Amino acid sequence: MKASILLSIVCAAASAVPAPSFHARNAHPHAASAIPDYPGIQFGANGKLDITVFSDLHFGEPSNERKDSLTTGVMNSVLDNEHSDLVVLNGDLISCEYVGPDQFNGIIDQVVSPLVYRNLPFAATFGNHDYSETCSTRSMASHMWWDIKGTNGKKLSFTTQSVEGPVEEIGWSNYFIPVYSSTDGSKLEMLLWFFDSKGGRVYQPGANQNRPTTSYVDKRVVTWFQNARDEFNKRHGRVIPSLAFVHIPVQATRAFQKSGKRGEFTQPGIDDEIVGHQDDCPGTDCYHGGDEVFMKALVETQGLISVFSGHDHGVDWCMKWSDDLPTKPTNGNGIHFCFNRHSGYGGYSNWKRGARKILVEESKLGNKEIDTWTRLEDGSISGRVTLNSTYGSDNYPKVDRLESWGW
């Protein structure tokens, strides 16, 4: 079924404003068209779009209500210290292995409560811990879409699904958000792509069969992405700049880490664990090539500035994939890949919590340039860099290893 509704996402932020309301023919979690008329957002009058990315929140762990309260505190601190036009929840919202089938949507309400309070629009991807026998990502996405509203009564969630197929294979957070010009609400300036890397277990409450999902972006999702991307470029007669968000990083990030090419001053950030990447092969540096099709599609996407991932709590640097790596493809044509800071008190961690910030300026899109940094819970900033043609050779202040506070 395809819904036919009039939808307006209202943003409370001062600089970015919502795009004009328009007919969102397929703006529904069951939509399957390659290029549906999704609602979008608009660059602010100052030509800027400010995105806050929370990753690995891990709400819902047993007997740890204090952890959830502390995680909400992290979100409130970041949002109080940073202007935000859009919030991205980039996977592992819930530690679903501990959550019953009658609990997960109530926990989602906890997760988004700081956003509801501020009337902030948001978009989510699902991570491996959001998939379990007792948690339905399909139901979570539907709850976000239909039920999560701001204090002003307006819809806040962009989270939806654009690809048909079994949820355990396709996932349930593959979609895009169009971003329109600050001066013309009908002129497309940028696309934000969201992908579901899955992992975890298949939703089957009471079955007790422990069936795993695949742990990479499915080929059918890649085909949808390529078709939609190419149709956008053809329709507008130019390459549309873009950013992408996916919870589990691609294997190229592990290859870069393993190569020893990361510099503490050229790619600043914490680097305290081995990168775990997309694939279905268990063990360190074990790889069956599960994400090669996805990596190839990313590399071939002109105008793609950066891909943002979470998953690895002890890593938060950015890399430019410009050198040859032992991957397929071997060279990333200069695409940047960035890790988010671990945001939640649930899940493993020895590092201060925070969120990745992304500042996009409309005037710099032609140069494929954005600024990004980490805003920490204590209000400080870590790892501020500019992702542009010279990133990887420019020097920045070294990021000290930041231990977490006891609690």
UniProtKB/TrEMBL annotation:
Query: At the top level of its lineage, which domain of life is listed?
Result: Eukaryota
Q: Which UniProt keywords apply?
A: Signal
- Domain annotation Calcineurin-like phosphoesterase: ranges: 51-313
Q: Report the GO terms under cellular component.
A: cytoplasm
> Which ranges of the sequence are coiled-coil?
none
* Entry's Gene Ontology molecular function annotations: hydrolase activity, acting on ester bonds
- First and last residue of the signal peptide: 1-16
In terms of Pfam families, this protein maps to: Metallophos
According to UniProt, the name of this protein is Metallo-dependent phosphatase-like protein
